[in-house]
Amino acid sequence: MPFSQSDYTQNRIAHWNHIAHTRPAQTFFSREYHRRLREIYRHLVAPGLHVLELGCGRGDLLAALAPARGVGIDFSPAMLQIARQKYPHLVFLEADAHHIELNETFDVIILSDLLNDVYDVQALLENIRPLCRPDTRLILNTYSRLHQPLLSLAGALGLATPLLPQNWLAPEDTENLLRLAGFEVIHHLREILLPLPIPLLRDICNKVLVKLWPFDALAWTNIHIARPIPSATTIEPSVSVIIPARNEAGNIESAFRRIPNMGRHTELIFVEGHSHDNTYTAIEQAIAAHPERDAKLFKQTGTGKADAVRLGFEKASGEVLMILDADLTVRPEDLPRFYQALVSGKGEFINGVRLVYPMEDEAMRFLNLIGNKFFSLAFSWLLGQPIKDTLCGTKVLYKRDYQRIAANRAYFGEFDPFGDYDLIFGAAKQNRKIIDLPIRYQERTYGQTNIHRWRHGLLLLRMVFIAALRLKFI
Fold this sequence. Notes:
By secondary structure, the chain is an alpha/beta fold. It has two domains: 5-228, Vaccinia Virus protein VP39 (Rossmann fold, 3-Layer(aba) Sandwich); 239-472, Spore Coat Polysaccharide Biosynthesis Protein SpsA, Chain A (Alpha-Beta Complex). Helix content is 38%, strand content 19%. A seven-stranded mixed sheet has the order 3-2-1-4-5-7-6, with helices on both faces. A seven-stranded mixed sheet has the order 10-9-8-11-13-12-14, sandwiched between helices. Strand 9, helix 10 and strand 10 (294-299) form a beta-alpha-beta unit. It starts with a helix and ends with a helix.
């Protein structure tokens, strides 16, 4: 006769209490497995956040993330006693994860090797929903079913923590249960190929080979990063359109006329970057000629588009930040599509794509087109989210998300004169939902491109290498 939920829970409480008393330290197998898990989670979760871990056990993973506020929940009093002694600066609460009563929300909620062990996965995930904000990230990992026999054997031999009968969830099972509970999967990772403390070999296996076919199919754990499925909102945020302008005097008046008003309020932020023509004067004259537009002008002190965009973002007062290149090869009339994609919750980083619709004859040179396609394939694989066009100048995100990206910019370093990769890498690192938005790319009507094909192409190859080291093979 199957256990009731109460019997099931009591049986597992007794099991984990026994483990806490009889196995004060992790076993040979589990020690390396959990060490690598902590390493992966530290990559996925920035320090200084509000973090909740369900099934926290001894609290080692939660403590490793250095949260500003860390709350651990477990139903084993023996495990919690150890956790409180080891990490008195964290909060540990005794409760069944199916029945959590907390009046707060968190930046990140973690379920590490928990779904395999609970009575009702869907009910537990639904119970988490009230603890989430729209920008909360749920990160969970589950054992791979492929290794069920080996894991059971390792437990029986004392090489791993013995387990009671488990829920063996395939990745598609986890994704379906998350969807039923109101979550959307952003990223799925396969991790840990060799859970043994063999120097050098473990790093080759766990940082490189497990990311490559066919070795990824042999991974020990599946990690899913998810967010709450967005609900409808009537809130209209304010918008700042940042327009970096260098040698674009002939496009300024058109920008004022064509950029639509969006949201509660729209401001235009022009950043002029050491032009050889009269761009700065043209912007001043346009501001005077259009008093109906809330427009500001700043002169760039540094160099490069990235520097100009950062200055514009710093000066912007809007809740939504948009980039529009002053060459207007992306039509200003398309900006409301970006706005709607963001505020509707369909994405959290809206990336313009020039490679879907046919282009005007001179809009993009052939070799540039080939290069863009190559880099889109490379970065889609490296980031774990589809990116069809990495260098479209128009990108849209919330200011709060940009501030998180900027605060963690040192992780990648100052490497990108364009700013596109700085933002894309940062959004991926912060586990934001990236959405491609196709636009029609038009031919320039004034001036010449500031892109140098070969010099900047080599720079983009360097960025592929940086992304591989910092995002993929970690």
